[in-house]
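Agenda item 2: flavin-adenine dinucleotide complex prediction
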Amino acid sequence: MADKFDVIVIGAGPGGYTAAIRCAQLGFSTACIDKSQDKSGAPVLGGTCLNWGCIPSKALLDVSHKFAEARDHFSELGITIEGVGVDVAKMMARKDKVVAQLTGGIATLFKANGVTSIAGCARLLAGKKVEHTNAQGQVSILEAGHVILAPGSVPVAIEPTPLNGELIVDSERALEFTEVPPRLGVIGAGAIGLELGSVWSRLGSEVIILEALEEFLPAADQRIARDGLRILKKQGMDIRLGARVMGSSIEDNAVSIEYVEGDEQNHVEVDKVIVAVGRRPYTEELLAPDSGVNLDERGFIYVNEGCETEAPGVYAVGDVVRGPMLAHKGMEEGMMVAERIAGEKSQVNYDTVPSVIYTHPEIAWVGKTEEELKASGDGYVVGSFPFAASGRALAAADAEGMVKIIADAESDRILGVHVLGPQASELIAEAVIAMEFSASAEDLGLTMFAHPTLSESMHEAALAVGGHAIHMVNRKRSN
Ligand code: FAD
Ligand code: NAD
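Presented output:
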């Protein structure tokens, strides 16, 4: 193996593998070092996203949704099936197969693009040198023209509910349950809590989610969040807001979680607990004291808009730097950094990072919420369209939620789009493209959408901004 590369990338999650592939495409000799291992101890690429995050959680979400549809809704559609059951072991094995296919795919892409994949732990030394330790503990020093740090993040732990790997677990373990827990406690009503809560609730767990904040999904538009909360509660998830977890105890294979709601002391007994209270940047053993890379006050690697650290020639991308901890944000940063190293002027537009929560219905948004605009005092106009008025959504018996578009009162430029509904994760891409091109609501309204589609709801919401949606009675709202 060579010991000098144009670029060394540390971490092969979405941020790191994208950076490595793009660097190789641009003609740089590139190595990517990653220390992750699968259950058998073999090196594995793809980071959190492919192994313990986005992909396995979506595999379980999609399968559990199909199961819940068959059990609870098929009869309303005239489909008769009897004895619908779930085989957790089979479901998990399929999830593992999807993960293996995709992580193997990264290995193939590395090979095809000429990226040198190195298994083991990496530490950044001064002067763009990288210390590599392999599985046998052998240490070697590699040199690079540029280094890209992409070590990702790990779950935050809290004192009142210490993880024990069995009854009180983090998201990684929660993707490995071997049976459906009769009662499941989830701490945190964020993306992970709602997604994994949905999985196990659909499969039959009684799910209780304890969320410290009084507000549900504070980063989302509150009209959408309120409707989402109502629907998720109706599905059976017991979401308790303003519930501060104070302690826990384990007895007879059950966990008692103590929490305070207002002035009231409460407790709840469950069979498993998932702690999903956020993630923190992972920089343990990554940086030698003289590496020249600094952390900010919250422990993230400090970078500028172009993801440059304070050490010349060293960049950092993904969950380890400021901004939302999302795979697509890390991937765009990885691509940007590779192109900047090649002398191009690439940028990431942080104003158009889409957020999605893969519940059913899905919750997705991009840009400003109505609350943010109200607080800023800028004038805006809102147009919304309910899926209950969409022919396609009704035909599919999937008509909960709405599309809400917020546009600038003067220029009509789209400032934010918020979707609660079927396929919101796909629909939001239309809004991202529109906003990337600085579209006005009128531009979207003048665009033709195929009929009958869910996308037409985006069209109708854009028309509603101008007060002339066709398939509903218009109620224009401005501020
Ligand atoms: P990571 O994916 O964490 O990869 C970092 C890699 O670097 C790891 O393999 C790590 O072992 C390696 N590494 C760290 N330090 C070293 C070192 N010193 N030497 C060598 N290797 C090192 N995001 C979405 O956008 N959509 C989703 O649907 C979604 N779902 C999620 C579901 C769950 C349950 C979780 C936990 C997360 C989810 N996320 C989702 C978040 C997403 O997984 C992260 O934003 C993304 O993985 C971050 O990518 P990254 O490249 O920065 O880091
Ligand atoms: P999060 O920040 O989304 O949500 C954590 C929630 O826990 C918050 O609502 C917070 O108020 C609450 N909380 C914090 N401390 C608490 C306490 N002591 N008691 C009760 N509630 C408490 O974090 P997450 O859900 O753990 O996800 C971690 C990261 O992974 C997020 O940044 C998220 O973007 C990413 N992720 C994304 C997706 C997706 O894009 N669909 C899915 C899963 C995870």
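Discussion summary: DSSP finds 13 helices and 23 strands in the chain.
Owner for follow-up: CH.
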